[in-house]
Amino acid sequence: MNLFEEDLTGKTDFEIADWLRKVRQLKRIGNQTEKEMLVEHMQKWEEHYKKYKKSLYDTKAFKRAVIILAVEKTIFKEIEVLIKGKGKKKRGYKLSCEEVINFGIMELSQIQSLKEKEVDIYVGKVEELMDDIYDTETTLEFIKQGVNQLIEHFRKYYQIEIDLSEIEHIKTVEDLMRELSQQEYEIISEPYENQIAKRELLEILDEEHIRRQRYYNYLKVHNTLEKDFFVTLGHFLAFNLEDLGYLLETEGYSLENSKKDDEKIMAQCFRLGTGRELMEHLLQTIQSVNKRLYSNRLPNLAYVFYYHNQTEDEKKKIKTLYDRAWEKVDDKLIRLYEKEMRKHEAMEDRKRKLEQQLEEVEKDYIEVLIGMHHTMSNEDEKGLIREQLMARGYFIDEGEEKSRDITESEYRYKCERLLNKKDNLIKLHQDILNKIKDDTNKKYDIKHIFPHYISKDYDLPKTKKDKERIEYIEKTEQFKITYKELTEYMQALKREDREKFVIKLFEQSIIL
């Protein structure tokens, strides 16, 4: 079966990784030129993406599969086998995972288990970094430290010890492999993590086209690097297009909606999971493989209104361009909405967790008050405690026995600590409420999403009213949208009445 005819829906991350490993390899058919081979390969891959976008490419399993290939190139490129002979003699040899399995040192399931562990850890680190990037209060220095922690993760390697009776004549890997096939040996340790030296990590980065000096320059907060560095880094870190987009934004760049042919190819490769090597092959061979089949220009905003006042014949003339243009606008607004929705969901989740913690502290506080009441002798203070408990809907039973395990002073100390904890939680809760409120009311400037709507070069109807509209659009600052309006836009898209919403949204910005 053709690889691009496979339905990988429901497959495991390792099965998807195996498929990705194969489709990243090009196969020439007949007398194809290299360019023809690349064009056909990418066209088939795009068709596969369109067919299985939701069931495969948007899934966590696909993201994990890309990371599996990344850890195979670094952490699991080799496993060090440390052989131990008589006395204290030890020698280390690096074997591939296949060799380790073939000689029975480890089983395939053990290797996969270790890979799963590394992917779990790494995915958690990536999610933490993305949370930091979403947080507008996070400094660039802190984000760069988080990126460096991801890079440092690939310094890991695994080591295992085995016991051989004689090791004197073992000088090379070939000697070791021959000896393992001829004599019995004992595995004396489970695989354990170690770290390669920093210079070896730098060598790995160099192999992945991340030069040492640029890497160090990146860690200096005020240094500015070109976009290509972050694209290459994104491949090394096994980012998808969305995560790369957020990393680029921290440096003032974007990629997904670029109109440059080479950057379209870069975005396509991250979306499909092609890896760096195939991306570079594409860039070197067919810079225009992803060239648009229609004009880049979007109709002017005036057309949103102008369109509805034309004859059917005139409407037909602009409909194709109009529809395709709005597809790009929809895509940009959907990305903005999804990004902001994730931020809101994260804040709402944080709010719920704080409220749960407050409830737990309140329960603990009631128990401490009850304990204090039973251990205190001062009736006035006991009365105050009863009032606090009654205010919380709890009526104390005077017949309950006094606690004999904790003294009054210990209860006072517990009470003080709980009150401090409660105060801190209330402050954090109020902060997150303020953030949610501010973020909900925040207005997003979307002028850049409609760049061609304010272009003087567009061939508009040459009336005085049209010119006034364009001049007004260029000067206005009303091209802003709230999160609530953004949500309404998404709902309008589902109802397929987007045009009405857009007219409503922008009518205040137009001289009608």
Count the DSSP helices: 20
How much of the residues is beta strand, in percent? 5-15%
Helix content: 55-70%
Radius of gyration: 31 Å
**Termini distance?**
59 Å
Given as residue ranges, the uncertain stretches (5+ residues, pLDDT < 50) are: 288-308, 451-462, 506-512
**Which descriptor suits the 3D outline?**
flat
Instruction: Kindly state the number of beta strands.
Output: 7
Q: What structural class should be given to the helix and strand makeup?
A: alpha+beta
Query: Helices and strands, in N-to-C order?
Result: HHHEEHHHEHEEHHHHHHHHHHEHEHH
Mean pLDDT: 76
Sheet of most strands: 5 strands, mixed
Overview of this structure, please?
This protein is α+β, with helices and mostly antiparallel strands and 512 residues long. It contains 20 helices and seven strands. It has helices spanning 13-23, 34-57, 60-73, 97-102, 108-134, 140-153, 173-182, 198-207, 212-219, 227-236, 241-250, 261-272, 276-285, 302-306, 312-375, 379-391, 408-441, 464-475, 483-495, 498-506, and strands at 79-84, 90-95, 156-163, 186-187, 192-195, 443-445, 480-482. Strands 1, 2, 3, 4 and 5 form a five-stranded mixed β-sheet that branches. Strands 6-7 form a two-stranded antiparallel ribbon. α1 (13-23) crosses α3, α3 (60-73) packs across α5 (108-134) and α15 (312-375) packs antiparallel against α17. It starts with 12 loop residues before the first helix and ends in a 6-residue tail after the last helix.
